[in-house]
Every structure is written in C-alpha cells, then in structure tokens.
Amino acid sequence: MKERHIYILLVIAMFLWGLSWPVSKILTAYAPPSVITFWRFFFVCLGSLVMLRFLNISLKIPWQTFKWVFLAGILNGLYMLMFFMALSYGEAGKGGVIVTTMIPMFSYVFFMLAVVLKKGDKLSKRVRRSEVLGLIVGLFSGLCLLNIGSPNEIFSKFNTLFLLCALAWSSITLFTHKAKGAHPLTINLYINFVSTLMFSWVLFLDDPFAALQSDVKFWINMFVLVCLSTIVGTSIYYYGIHRLGSVRANSFILITPISALICSFLLLNEVPSLLTLLGCALALFAIYFINIYGKAKFNR
Q1: Residues 6+ apart with CB under 8 A from 125
Q2: Contacts of 24 (CB under 8 A, 6+ apart)
Q3: Measured between alpha carbons, how far is residue 115 from residues 108, 118, 125, 297 in Å?
Q4: What integer is the mean pLDDT of 77-92?
Q5: Which pLDDT value is given to residue 291?
Q6: SS3 1
Q7: What is the pTM (predicted TM-score) of this model?
Q8: Cβ distance 272 to 224 under 8 Å?
Q9: How far is 126 from 136, CA to CA, in rounded Å?
Q10: Domain EamA: where (predicted)?
C-alpha cells in the first residue's frame, strides 16, 4: 500500500475515534453506565476475536506479560466506566477534547518521571526545549478547557471524571508498553477481556439484557462504537505505526479532538464555546511540541 493511501486511512481512523464520543453519549440514554460498559467490552472482544482470526494473528502471549495485561485491563474498565458517567454531565465534544489532549501530556509527564526514578538522571538532562514549551502551552490549554474563570465548573463532575479518564488512560499506556512479546491487537483483545470480566457482575442485575432489546438507533450507535471506532480505527492506527513509524503515525492523533468536536456538532448539535476552541488549539500545539516536533527533529 502506498504511503498516501495510509495517510488517508489514518485520517479516517482519527475521525472514527472522534465519532466515538457523540455515539457513546447517545448510548448512555439506554442503560446505566455500568451496563453500557459491560456490553461495549463484550462486543469489542467478539469483534476483536473475529478480526484477529481474519488477519491470521496469533492469540498467544507470553506468561510474563499477563500481569501488565491484567493491570491495564482493570484501568481500562475504570476508564470506560468514568467515560460513560462523565458523558451524562456535559458535552461529548468538549469531553473528547479534554481527554484526547490531556492523555499525551499526562503520558509524557509519567514517562519522564519513570525515567528519572529508574535511572536517577536529572530532569534537565532529559527534557528538550520544545517539550518544555509544549508543557507550558499545555498548562494554558488545560486552564481554558476546564474554564478556570468559573470555580464551580473547574471542580464539576464533568471535568473531574474526564481528567480521571485521561489519567487512567495515561497509566494504561505505561502498562501496555511493558506488555511485549505479542501483536498489539492480541494484547488489546486480552485487555478488553479482563475489562469484560471486571464488569460481568452486571449480569446479576435486574434485566441486564434490556438494553439489547432497544431500538435500531441503539444498535447502529453500538455498531459504530464497537466495530468502526474501536476495532477498525485501532487496527488502522497500529498498521500505520507499523508502516510509517510511531512519530509520523502519532502525528495524526492531533485530528482526534477536532473530529470529536465536528462529529458532536453534526450528531448532537453541540456548538463548542470559544474557550473550548482556544483550549483545543493550544492543546494541539502542546502535543505537537511534546510528542512530535522534538522526536522528528531528533530522528532526522
């Protein structure tokens, strides 16, 4: 496949990821967050298993990776529960911007702290100027996205839950980075399987299958979330990393917060505030300087 075709696929994948925010908000109207979380993981596992067999990818993973897969699965379950809970308190588009822009910045901070604690190096030796600039810009973007001018909104359930989502997902990336020895899609399947088991208790609730008896709108949105956003989008992303490298492939993630705003506007008629748009723009610059500019310059 030519590179320009991979670029097109990655753009599509990032829009599919952005699409997951408004369709997930729609799904919250059909059942409690815990029930929607379980069925989301259940169908993702089924779809991922079909995808792996279709691509002829092995289901085997080394035993030593199971502890990292287990920890990532637990955090993945907590992330998705908080994700669906938070969507009931505010706009899907703004939530998509907060999470998708804060995750890279939290991940970078965690990574640098891990390096310093492990090797005992001074932080100044590890941080590039572009990364410092990115962190400063990222701080201002966070203040805009959380609406620093309104104390009540800063500590609202919406902001708190989505910040916790970003922290949880940033921690997941640390564990998945350690889970080596198998294909990323295989590891992703087992992580979602652990998350499914984590929420299997919902099967003992009163009529947990009621959501599955919902209208066509429910199934369309579940299909988009599970098959298109999660399975297809993630598969394209990993393929892009394999063909283009992590630096070039990860640069496309900058599209995700923008696509979340666009898709939320089209599906939910959510009009983002100027503060949200400003925070989004600043966050994109921050992610670029932290995760792309310095690495691209270093790898030349």
Answers
A1: none
A2: 83, 84, 87, 92, 221, 225
A3: 11, 5, 11, 21
A4: 90
A5: 61
A6: coil
A7: 0.84
A8: no
A9: 16
A10: 7-113, 161-291
